[in-house]
């Protein structure tokens, strides 16, 4: 279109002015992003094995495209560990930077008391004080302060014995339930608590959306699993509770919560998945998506859910200023033994043992950190790290000074993840433990276990034969993890001096209130 000279000059002036305004706006927005603390998202899987991720197990029978993509955009750790081989203790350690065994070893049972003391300082508390909006969505499994009207009045035969359990009438549902996420630093909570523990109902913040009036009939769930057993405990349930709705509901709720964020206010999201923990219940549209049976399909769905969360962050324009940390609470459940025989898929990867074990497979977990512009994409670290290290690391990133006696076992991973020079090993040593009778200590290449076995989950003889495992007769164990990560060769009798020093250090950690100290060079 032809324009008179005068109008063309006006249009040029307008274009220049608009261009300048856009430059100012762009610069201002970039400055706001640079000056704003990063959002932090922790995605925590449940009973997911190291070998379940396609990106770290070439022989995996499960596609995990979203986790693979997350790893390609960040740093993947090949030697990361949960504090425990079971879930409640690992979750406590993650949120406090404190080894679980400083508090307790076991899980929080149905209607159990909080794992926390009110004096504990948690990661969400620190971030909330820093101005973050904090949310927990999904599995809590760290206890509440329930109001009971009387002792449990229900009774059922389960696992070969009569078990007492609470009915809906035994609990006071009229008051908010204290002691949970809202009392530990979270502004918001949505979840069902623990998928296989009562009450089977949705809780939002500290009240139930619908009060349970029915009871979970463990002998007639009303649905079939796709693999394994239901693992449900008896107890109160809302009418029409459908376990297959749990994972999809949590996915939708998490995406909706992200979409509601104010881009100018930092947030911390702890998305605690209930999967691929049993019951193994992938929705029908995911059936056959893997070559590893029902569990493989459930893993594929779990990966899909993670992809939906990542997609929501990107669509909202939050991806570039968000740190994403992905890990799992412990190794895979006992069904992994049969899965290996039936599908040639090894959820534990090349590691020995499963959930509950001090064997490597019990606590050697997937771990990925993505932070655009700060962590180089596609990098892999073989450094030994622990989930307790998240607390000190996030505190450094957000310029939070940790209060005295807080996060006593947490090392700052910042030099490692930013590719800066640091003294290796970063951690002096790392404690492996589930129950109070077995302890392991990893220091450098050495792993010491103060027992003749690291086993708690009974390994079938058929699986021992398949992997070439043998039992040991020495009163303790010593493995060279650089050359023998599968824990075949016990070197206990060949290095008594190393064992003596490591056992002494383990006792010091247990007796003292912190395991953070200057690196030692006496065990190499």
TrEMBL record:
Signal peptide: 1-31
Keyword Signal: yes
Xref: CDD domains: ARS_like
Keyword entries, A-Z: Calcium, Hydrolase, Metal-binding, Signal
Domain Sulfatase N-terminal: residue ranges: 38-398
Pfam family, one: Sulfatase
UniProt key word Hydrolase: yes
PANTHER family, A to Z: ARYLSULFATASE FAMILY MEMBER, ENDO-4-O-SULFATASE
Family recorded in the similarity comment: Belongs to the sulfatase family.
Annotated protein name in UniProt: Arylsulfatase
Organism annotation: Agaribacillus aureus
